[in-house]
């Protein structure tokens, strides 16, 4: 996951604060900010792996092919906080499942029109 400097409207910045690392000066109706630049494909990789069956953290990490564990954790946290993925304890493990909202997100990209 990369960080980038960009200008975004104040209204958008207020609604999507999870993506903002640091706000700098405000210029008219925009704010200069360093933001998290999440990759759509990495989010889809997590959702795609969970489309059929719930998985433990370790299984999801291996099957997602997101190599950097820190990046994997950032994407997993994003998906859980936006309710694309749910997590439930099962014994000593945490089990992750795709939610209806996550399935809708995945379906938006799988139903590509020609």
Q: Could you describe the 3D structure shown?
A:
With 114 residues, this protein is of the alpha+beta class. It has five helices and six strands. The protein has helices at 10-15, 40-50, 57-64, 69-81, 100-110; strands spanning 2-9, 20-27, 30-37, 55-56, 85-90, 93-98. The protein has a three-stranded antiparallel β-sheet. β5 and β6 (93-98) form a beta hairpin. The protein is elongated and about 50 Å long. The two termini are 30 Å apart.
Q: What tags apply to this protein structure?
A:
114 residues, alpha+beta, three-stranded antiparallel β-sheet, 5 helices
Number of helices: 5
- Estimate percent helicity: 40-55%
Q: How would you sum up the global shape?
A: elongated
Low-confidence stretches: none
For the secondary structure, the number of strands is 6
Termini Cα gap: 30 Å
**Nearest-angstrom radius of gyration?**
16 Å
Fraction of residues in β-strands: 25-35%
Class from secondary-structure proportions: alpha+beta
H and E string: EHEEHEHHEEH
Mean of all residue-level pLDDT scores: 86
Instruction: Report the biggest beta sheet as strand number plus sense, adding barrel if it closes.
Output: 3 strands, antiparallel
Within the largest sheet, what's the order of strands?
1-3-2
Quick synopsis:
With 114 residues, this protein is α+β, with helices and mostly antiparallel strands.
């Amino acid at each position: 996951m990369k960080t980038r400097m960009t200008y975004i409207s104040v209204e958008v910045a207020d609604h999507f604060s999870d993506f903002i690392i640091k706000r700098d000066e405000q210029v008219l109706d925009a704010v200069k900010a360093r933001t998290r630049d999440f990759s759509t494909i990495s989010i889809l990789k997590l959702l795609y792996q969970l489309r059929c069956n719930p998985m433990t953290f370790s299984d999801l990490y291996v099957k997602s092919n997101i190599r950097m564990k820190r990046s994997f954790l950032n994407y997993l946290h994003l998906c859980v906080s936006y309710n694309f993925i749910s997590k439930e304890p099962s014994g000593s493990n945490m089990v992750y499942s795709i939610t209806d909202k996550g399935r809708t997100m995945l379906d938006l990209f799988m139903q590509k029109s020609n």
